[in-house]
Design goal:
single chain; 107 residues; mainly alpha; 4 helices; globular
Length: 107
């Protein structure tokens, strides 16, 4: 549950920095993040059985799937391809790198 909460907070901050101010959109993005984050983490925790190299390949594929999914779901709301792509890219890059730092240096 903590990884999801951290992801939601980081992505909300990223959206805020990007200029988003709509409370409805923040709730929508929280739902999107929850829908994509939980299955991705459950797969890595409970299904993935490979070694280090396979882990990084699996994470890259999962992140790409999450990025595309979030772009499409964001586009459904905004009807703006550029904004949806920027939001998806920035939020996913921010949460991935900051999450990696937390995972590697704190836990």
């Amino acid at each position: 549950m903590e990884p999801l909460l951290i992801t939601i907070i980081l992505e909300a901050l990223a959206l805020f920095v990007l200029g988003e101010r709509s409370p409805t959109f923040f709730l929508y993005w929280t739902a999107i993040t929850t829908i994509t984050n939980i299955p991705a983490n459950l797969y890595i925790i409970y299904v993935f059985k490979g070694g280090a190299t396979e882990y990084y390949i699996a994470v890259a594929i999962i992140e790409l799937i999450v990025l595309v999914s979030e772009f499409l779901l964001c586009y459904l709301y905004t009807k703006d391809k550029k904004k949806s792509l920027i939001y998806s890219l920035v939020c996913n890059v921010a949460s991935y790198f900051i999450g990696s730092v937390i995972l590697n240096f704190i836990f």
